[in-house]
Design a protein that fits this description.
Blueprint (H helix, E strand, L loop, with lengths): L2 E2 L14 E2 L10 H5 L2 H11 L2 H4 L4 H17 L2
Antiparallel strand pairs: 1-2
Amino acid sequence: MVKPYTPARALRSASAKRLAAPSLRGGPKFPSAETRGFAILALTWWNELPIDIRTAESSHIFQSRLKTHLFPLHFER
């Protein structure tokens, strides 16, 4: 459902491990249903993560960095 972003020409952001937006052609009749779909939300959340999390060397390092990133966002009071 999600695909890596590949720029048409050489860009510095090519190594940022971003995801590409899916095509909206052939989707449901109501755009609001499409925008709430997994493919849109997943790529938006992924692309908003800091680069050091997206480029983690292993799943263990990714999980650790993600947890460290998310805890202050949700438990800061």
